[in-house]
Amino acid sequence: MAILVTGAAGFIGFHVSERLLARGEQVIGIDNVNDYYSVELKRARLAELARHHQGFELIEVDFADQAALLQSLDGRSFDRIVHLGAQAGVRYSIENPHAYVHSNLVGHINMIELARHRRSSHFVYASSSSVYGGNTNLPFRVEDRVDHPLSLYAATKKADELIGETYAHLYRLPQTGLRFFTVYGPWGRPDMAMWLFAKAILAGEPIRVFGEGDMRRDFT
Prior knowledge:
The protein is built from seven helices and six strands, in the order βαβαβαβααβαβα. It is of the alpha/beta class.
């Protein structure tokens, strides 16, 4: 039976889909291929999946649109859900908060409800290291309290974790939430620090530094 992967055109979703397909799984990918960053890069990732694997199917739909989501999945069977799709970016959440409510809250509810009604054997979803917010304990631990998010993006991801906990309690829905720390690698998002630094270095331009150069960061 297939595995449903949201955000399949995204960086992490692309790699997860590729790994699942490589081990012989069938993958139904969901992505609305929005223009938050290069649509050409997203299309290239999807083409790479289709080129190398027969078991990949893409459904181009916004999972925050419940009616469209359910209609697109009617008649399709899947056992597990890997929900990686979201509106990413911390600074952008200040400029466009409604995009985060739409995708990360409404979209998350739609997907976890889908998992509940389809009786999925496992629901894996992307949280974020941003939930640690104002936590001063280093290194961060899963057991740390995360009650002080410092961005709307972080607040939506913390809310997703709370929703997940509620659904685990009410419906015994098996779940795993992953708090990613700035994931990087091949086919990565062009707005990430690694690529911005490399581009500036190759062009002989100054590297743009945020946080007065005092920030420290873990990477995945």
